[in-house]
Amino acid sequence: QVFNQIAGDAVDLRPDSAGRILIPQPMRAEIGLEREVIVQGAITYLGIYPRTAQTTEDHETRSLARQLVDSIGI
């Protein structure tokens, strides 16, 4: 039941002939997407967030993650 509540608004999006993905207006309105966004991906999923969602903590987290990756030689 929890999964259904979380994923109930999920949409299967397909790229158009130019390779663009159009995000439905109700989804854009729900999270305040305008023109600039942040796209984060993992395997077969993309997270798309308003540009304003990026914070100093995000930069610090990425910096620490990069240091960790560099330290193990990936």
- The strand line-up of the biggest sheet is 1-2
Radius of gyration: 16 Å
End-to-end separation in angstroms reads 38 Å
Largest sheet: 2 strands, antiparallel
Strand content: 15-25%
Helical percentage = 40-55%
The count of DSSP E runs of length 2 or more, i.e. the number of strands, is 2
Task: Label the overall shape.
Answer: extended
Question: How is this fold's topology laid out?
Answer:
Layout (H helix, E strand, L loop, with lengths): L1 H6 L17 H7 L5 E6 L2 E6 L5 H17 L2
Antiparallel strand pairs: 1-2
Task: Briefly say what this structure is.
This protein is α+β, with helices and mostly antiparallel strands. It contains three helices and two strands.
Write up this protein:
The chain has 74 residues and is of the alpha+beta class. The chain contains three helices and two strands; from the N terminus they run ααββα. A hairpin with a 2-residue loop joins β1 and β2. The chain is extended, with a radius of gyration of 16 Å. The model has no long low-confidence stretch (mean pLDDT 79).
